[in-house]
Amino acid sequence: MASVRFSGVSKIYDNSVLALARFDLEVSDGEFLVLVGPSGCGKSTTLRVLAGLEVPTTGELFIGDRNVTRMKPQERDIAMVFQNYALYPHMSVFDNMAFSLRMRRMESSMINRNVMEAAEILGISPYMDRKPRELSGGQRQRVALGRAIVRHPSVFLFDEPLSNLDAKLRVQMRNELSQLHTKLGSTMIYVTHDQAEAMTLGDRIVVLKDGDIQQTDTPLELYDHPDNSFVAGFIGSPSMNFLEAELKRGTLEAGGFSIDASPFGRIPDGEYLFGIRPEDIQPEAGSPLYGAVEVVETLGNENIIYMRFAGRQFAVRCGPKVQSSPGERFHFRMDLHRSHLFNEDGIRIEKDD
Ligand code: ADP
What we know:
This protein is of the alpha+beta class.
């Protein structure tokens, strides 16, 4: 087990794409850190640089107190699990898991012990003689995890390991990965574009955009106190509702509606982006605020109502008993103490309270 530190790491590929921009990050020993962001934001590059599969253009990398920047991948004591499993098709599950240990000339009784111990943790002991093609997607992913576990690495790296699985299995494996982290207590760095996966797995989450860290925080801090409108819009599903609004003497005006801006304290008049999450809007008969319902999603435990309000689509998370249909007027109120304002640069304005 070990901590990980990126110090001023940047990566410019040969085609002059800036994939990472002066990346500074510290991951504590035993932490589960998730890197999240849209496709192309530099998540895989971050892992590949740490694993030694790409050479950073600038900066240094540390695992524990070892400077690994110029070390070969196999010297770094890292195990990486990929989305496509990368299992050897002609080898049994046992041999797939034992492969890297044999390469290191580990004694065979030790190999046996490590492999069977990992198989036990992952619940794949009954399949040790099977070939990968004789396994389900979830079982294959467990073998790929097993191959990493047997090496007892200092750091585990996961590159979208669940994205080939169907939705139900993904949720189950997510849960198992959390338990695995608790059991092993190892440092884990996990890449995903799925914000729900990031929220449920991460001790801390790093939100990336265009190779730049937008915010590093615990899941709840990111959700409740996003630093900017990108993070606010990326974390949460359905995402935060946004409205361009003009602040004039304590009132936000947008699309013919007025919203009280007193929760934001004394801030200068001007253009702002107003944001509110779907669960912070409630139906209220007779309210001066209303939208035209466009879509109703009935999920059983809740209804999501999408309405057009002030020229934007707004999602509202309602209880299962709230009924509405497309074309109807939906009157609502907003919990303005839970709303957000972003300035013209997208930076969130701190409320006074
Ligand atoms: P993510 O994992 O977030 O989807 P990547 O780290 O794969 O993002 O890519 C970051 C940026 O670097 C993207 O613009 C991508 O096109 C570019 N990129 C990735 N790998 C290479 C490469 N080997 N050569 C050139 N450009 C690359």
